[in-house]
Amino acid sequence: MIIGIVVGVIVFLLILGFILTYNGLVRLRNQMRNAWSQIDVQLKRRHDLIPNLVETVKGYAAHERQTLEAVTAARNAAVGAIGKGVGAQAKAEGELTGALSRLLAVAERYPDLKANQNFLALQEELTSTENKVAFARQYYNDATLHYNNKTQMFPSNIIAGMFGFRQGEFFEIEAPAEREAPKVKFV
Amino acid sequence: MWEQIRSNQIRSTVLVIAMAGLLLLLGYFLGELFLGSPVGGLIVALVIWGFMTLVAYFQGDSILLAVSGARRIGPEDHPRLYNVVEEMKIASGLEYMPAIYIIDDPALNAFATGRDPKRASVAITSGLLEKLNRDELQGVIGHEMAHIKNRDVLLMTMCGVLLGTIVILAYYASRILLFSGAGRRSSGRGGGGALPLIIIALVLMILAPIAAQLIYYAISRKREYLADASSALYTRYPEGLASALEKIGGSTVQLKTANKALAPMYIANPFRTGARALSEWTSTHPPLAERIRILRSMGGASYADYNAAFARTHKGGRSVIPASALAGTGAVGLRSPSPETMGEPSRLERHREVSDLLWKQSNYRTIECECGTRLRVPPGIKHSTVRCPHCGRNHSV
Question: Which domain holds residue A84?
Fold first, then answer.
């Protein structure tokens, strides 16, 4: 009788622990996925802003062709990298960020362009989108770290292994200073 | 570390329970004294409390925003402010975008309100908006978003209601006692047993509001430290908030619409009086200088870094960050300041931006004259044309 109760309680606790751990893993994985979709939204927004920016800059600084083309090429590469995995996308986006910052640095040399309302609005949107990408990435990486820790640590790792909770991949973009790669020559 | 900070709630919960206990104790003794039944007193206290809680819960944010004369703005009214709020929403992992309000006031302050993240609002004074650069604005908005994320608004509203109920009960009880208490006592219970009762009730009437106030201040200060730490974590740039707080501290303009009950919602105590330093115990906010010192001595952007900086500033080394937030976090690096050249408007441009926004909010129309003058046309103008005062061109309205 007593043994029966003890066994029953132990089984109950095990099942309870199992359910809680499983749900915790699902919650963390969803948090990570939501965070990723947030990055996605911001990246798309950035891709949409760029053709507009390139057109505006062209009107004032048409002979900065090299820089403009580099931005367009980097943007197309980044659009192409969508769906090819976190690592590939991060790399393409990192290159786009570098090309964009070069373009904005070039724009500094054109006072008329800098006074253009449309350009100013675009610049604000772009600066903010860059920030949003960075903040979304920051949040995604934290969420991923949290989730990965949980999938690796005992005892949740057992349940993670049983139900195929795979590790999340970090979204890393190198710091801007390291990113200053040799300029790509076009034409 | 992005989990909602629950264990910190334990300490806050203990303090809230202490306040509630104080309220019930007061109700009990006042009921015994005036109504002849402690249960009656308890019921009166609970009814007042319940009513005020309902009002605060469902109408608190609209009342607060209406009282401070805040007006809601959209993304096109002030793109930079809207973007910064969205940035901090993303960084804090909040699901919903809060409503953004602007208060036409030269004082430097900001606050957050709304009972849950779903219907949260942040408000900022026009003075602060034009004084701060992007990084500083980010720090301030990060602080307000932290109040929303950490559910401080609800906690402080509930504390405020408790405090208010205690103050109201004690106030009216003392009035009644002064003017008619003696009659009731002689006709009612009377006798030797009543004297200690009166003394207890009297002591409670005097001490309960003071004790509740001190508890309230203690909770509020704690949440301020936590919001500062969260802001540093979201922005990865504590210097932004530090420098914003420095600007706020340098201003002597008092907020016109400040309200005592709402003080903990603001980024800085709206009742700060320039020269007179309020004692630490009787303030809703830690001293600005101390908050700045802690932020500036942070070695990284994590909660652990904030806690270490806090311990360095306070010799005692007590902790302000809950253990649950400290556990399981890696090192978090700081970022460098935003480059000034990247579309950062100057002080003058920011001033223009904000005043344009305020004119627009008052339904003024703007006409750009070819000579470069900007004409503002008041709403309900009777003339069909206006003349530019500089070049004399006529513009149709």
Answer: 2-179
